[in-house]
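Researcher: We're teaching a course module on how sequence relates to structure. For the next exercise, students receive a sequence and then see the predicted structure as tokens, so they can try to spot secondary structure elements on their own. Here is the exercise chain.
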Amino acid sequence: MPEWQASLDYSLLAFSHSGSYLASYSSVPEFSLTIWDWRKKILLCSQAQPGVDVTAMSFNPMSWHQLCLHSGTSVTLWNIERSDNEHLLKSKPVTLPAQDGSTMHEQNTFFFCPNTQDPYFGPVLPISAVAGLAGDEAETFKPKDDTQPTVHPTVHCWTPTSDLYMGSEEGYFLKIGADTFKAVAVHQKLSPDAKAKRRTTFRSMSHSAGKAEDGGRNEAQNVALFAMALHKDGLYAAGNVRAMKDLSLAIPDQNPGIDQKQDGVVRCYQVKGTQFQTEDCLEMDERITNLIFSPDYTYLLVETEKGSLYVFNPNDNEDVIQLLDASEGQFLGVDFIVPGSKHCVSVAESGEMHIWQTEDGACISKMSLHALATAMACSLSSHCVAVGTKGGHIFFIDVTDVKLPRVIHRVLLTEQPVEFLQQHRSVGESMGECQAMVLSHEIIDLTSLYDIEKEASEVIALLCPPDIKRARIEVFSLPSKIVLDNEECISERGLLKDHVIRRRFYDLEFPLCSVVKRKDTTVYGYASQAPFICKYHFASKISWKDSPVIKSEKRIPSKQFGQASLHLSPHGKWLASVAESGVLIIHDAATLDILAREHCHSYHEHGIRTLTFSLDGQFILVSGLDGAIVLLKWKRISERKLKDAVDFGNYLLSNLNDYIFQENTFLRNMPEWARILGPKLDSALFQSDSQVKFKKGSTVEIEEEEEYFLLTQEKSSEATWLAQKAEKAIKEETDKFTDKRKGVKHGIKKLRKKIQEMMFENAKAPTIEKLDQQEFNVDIEEQERQLIESEKEVARVRKDIEMENLTNAYLREIIKEDCWNAMSVKGRSVRSFHLPCEIQNYPMKERGPDEVAFLERILRMKKIEKTDMKDIIYNVKTAFNKEFDSVTRMKELEIARVKERNVRISEILNQLEIQEEIWEPTLTDNEKPDRDLRVLDSEIKVEKYLTPVMKAKEKIMARINYKRRLAAQGDNARERGLIDMMNGVLEIKKEDILKMILETELRKLQSSVQETTQTFDEIVNRLFEKKVKSEMVIYQEELKITNLLYSLLLDEELSTREAGLSHYLEKKRKEKMLTSDAVKASRAQVDTYREAYDILVAEDKLMERGFRKEFSDVPAHHVDQLFKLYKRRPRAQKTKVVCDTANPYGDRPGSVKVLQDAYTQLMKGIDEMDEFGNKPEGLDYTIWDRLCVSRRAKVESEQQIKQKALTLAEMQTFLQRRIEDDEKVRKEIEQIFTELNLLREMKMKFQLDLMVQFLFKQGQVELDSSNLIPDYTDAILINRSIIEELNSTIRAQGEKKVASMVESKDFRKGIFQLEWEHKKIKMQIDDLNQKARDIQKLNVTKDRQLFLTVLNYDSRMNHEVSVMEATLTFLDKVHKKNVQQREKLIMELGKQIDQKKVANHKLSKEIREMLVSVSERRHIFEASDSELLKEKINKEHYEDILQRQQLVDLAKAQAQELSILQAEVERLRMKTFPAFFDVQEY
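Model: And here is the predicted structure for the students to work with:
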């Protein structure tokens, strides 16, 4: 269909059931639904759905006018409307239930508006207007909180009533009404035992179900349906049931444990109303993806996820027949079985191996390795396949008998997966060798090449080191003597020796993803960052030390995308590139010209994965991640190029025939490998039948005894080849150094004994002389290594901490700049000293010039109200902040005075020996908010890092403090002697006098502090009252601003709503113009067609009326007889239709082909009636011919009238639908006009209904204050004077009553005061008596004596300081000496660096000279090789000239023959000259 094509591909195709119509859906970028007439190859109509990715599509079997399309989140029904040759697509979305199965009721949020109107806050508008949307997005806008996720459709099926059954991922069974376009969840009617019912013909192919015959699945268990097929018996649907299975087989590379599987089940649904019942028909271990009934609705075809096909009769006990057993898992490789290309072998990731016949693609046999495969390779010298696994094994499989492959050997190379596995593609003694490469993930690609002359394999590995960010190729050789003389080529631990492999390194300019190498020095690479194919030329001798970056000789762009790889043909002249795009491109290896291009796989499944050439180059095998294998054969290519490939393949086979015969004979004689698996299990696991019939009940492939054997088998203790080599080397070393080991062990025992004795002695030593445990560590190297590692870790942690501190400091500066420095008035608070009162100021930003200019501009624009209110608030805050700052400064002064007095109070308390806590006022964090910007040492919880110098200094200070404390606690002889001589009498008298003075001074100071702080608290209380009044003013003004902003916001929302309605109205007007034009065009088309129809009817009537005039020359008795024959029509032959009771759709509407067949059958009947045998007797033949012609014209006219009548009825229906669409748009426009008028009335009412704010004192609002906001609906305003007169009267009466109450109160107060004075005097007497007793019992303790005996304290401190200064002086001298030594060492290292630079300069000069000589030799070599190339080119040119001359001669001879044949054809045509015409067109 050349009229229209998708840019990439078509994701879905669907044929109509009754008509020649095809629906297609394209993916990125069009996302278009297109309807085609596939018979006429024309496009009928198309509709785009940008961004909608559809997963399923189907026609309604009862009407081709309906289509159902669904994706993972939505369902859409499409109607195809037709008017003569015009087709139109109309969509209708289906409302899906929520994820919990509940029905969702969607409302039109654009027109939906609640009826409730709030008189205080104004009208309530739609959400789109509140969001400020006025364009197309306003029509579909829905808040995120109101969006509820729906079910995810998986499959659908049409019913005879044009309804739809649908399954979902959530397990719900849905039914979609054809008229309502809503999906409703159909619930299951559970049986009493809640067990799933099974049919009498139930069959199970599930291994888990076969072991528990009496156990059944829960009936209420959700089944996610993925396939449906309708039948007269009910709806057959297939889904998946999750099951947990314990699978623990002792098979290599398979970890035992719990494996979560999905079992497939086919169920028959009996739907009645909103309930259904189910019966299980089939159960299997695989996931079912598709169900299709046969044309007679007898057999059901089942397709599984991996591609297997099964057929069974749901109503019969016949066996389930397996038509196709597909591979489980994706193919990781495919290759031909040599010689020839008759068979090929493929290996999947799951470990399944298939042998295919290339002629018809039939699967000959298969087997499973029960191991995850990672690589494969086919031998060229034998019928042997090598498969590498994830567990490091390599399986060798004998395929000499393609119908019965068998494992003959297995070897464990390493515990890592085998990444690459290759065979030599050349002739030699090591043809049967297999190269297994177990490489790290650093290796991107690997290829090998066999050199016949050197008898060695050249391995090329592609790397992309992250430090250089470009490709690096490592080339190393594997000589044949590795197999012949293995011990000389490998070390004792199994590693290849460097002089054997001869490694070479090449750095390339670009990062590559694939690389191949020809037998010469040419290398091809595919760039990974851009789609380019690069050609490189490698030098034969180069080392990695002087390896330059190699530039590409040629670079061509590739039209592929995604991850790509390159492959060389066996003869090395074709370069194939494959990529995730699924396109195979073959280039000429010499010129990189494109020889062929073929699309093999879909890019949706990541395109092509592997490619293999046959030995003769005639066939190419391609496999992809879509589970398909594609065999390609050359269609157009020059004979010379194909001959080169065939000759090379024949050459290889001629040299391989002897090897193939010998090695195949050896393979047949090798026994089958069975190290773990038993003989009975082998036959079950390696089953090779291509078609398997599953009978009822025969679901267990492994017997219980064999399964028990596998479950109880221990894990294999097989050692890898490298481990065996290492074990052997260790054993040899142990035998060689036995005596030395004994001597070393004996010495270690002596040393251990001696160290233990030293540790025992160290434990007895004093604490100051003890050594640390690490000092006894004799492993100095390990100790130094641990020390270095710890220092590195400390440095790393320190660096991380520094970076984190730097980040926090940066954030701190940002926060400080925005929230502190930018504030002209910092936010802070002031607290009273004794009362729980705290007042905060108003943080304010300084008004910038822009803001001041804006305010002036607002004033000029006469929008003064809001600006004045903001200015009032600003002035109130400024005035309060000034007074707040003065109070704050006052508090700071008071705190300073209190601290001065507290110093004296502290001295007095110390002299009086009174332990009393001194009240010390401080500023809180809220009063000093800048404290939050400083970090104190006490806030750091982690241990502080100290340098060695700081640690030494801290030890010295600790010792000084310790000595100081000892000195303070020492005995003072002077004070003790004075007390002994004077007995303390003189001091006691002075102390009494001093104590009285100090107590008096203490009371004065404390009362002074109390008075000043109380005075400040009163100031704070007054400030608090002012703050309350300021808050009142500010809140009032802010309320005004809020009301003003709300009115502006509501006005903006109303304007937005009006703009949205206007935009929607304009949109509908344009739509109305389109619908009106469509109605006019359709009506004109109908009128024109009706005129043609009327003319045709009139002509038909005239034709019937003019019959007698036309046959007026015929006798009268013949005219009546002829008129009867003229009106006679052949009987319609009814085709005997076999009653198909199983077809759920019954008799479907006739298709175009059926109508054409009926017309053809009618004309055949007319031909039979025109025969001369039906001519009346005595009628002339000419009159009979005239009757036949007239009758045929009449029949054709009648058929044409019928066809036009059907078309006219369809066109009238189309016109009626266009009229209905036009009427619907007209009603919508009227609704929009009504909405606009209501909105404008609402807007006018809101603008006139103003809000005025009044300020009343407390008591002036006499309303019920039970609610937060009183209801002022019925409130009235009363004059203030009336209330004040009434209040004055009440106040006068109240004052009289209060006066009498005050007199009574004062009298009772005097009585209480006298009683209080009496109690006070008695308590003072008791207090003085107690004090006298305390003074008599007072003792002079040792602590008081020490306080008086500290006269030598200053001299001791001076002595300790002098000692510390001397120590510091000594440390400075040692540090300077160390610095001088380090400077000398730096100077010596600098001299050595200069010497190295001179040597490097000399070496660089030598390198330049060597490069010049290399380039000269390369030019000489190229010049000598050019003569041979010219001779070869001339020879090929001469052969081409000869071939062209032969073709020209042949063309001339064929042209002469054609001219003779054309003349003969013309002669025969003129002789016969028949009339040919196209029956179909007629």
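Model: If you want an answer key for the exercise: The longest strand covers residues 257-272. The CA atoms of residues 215 and 952 lie 80 Å apart.
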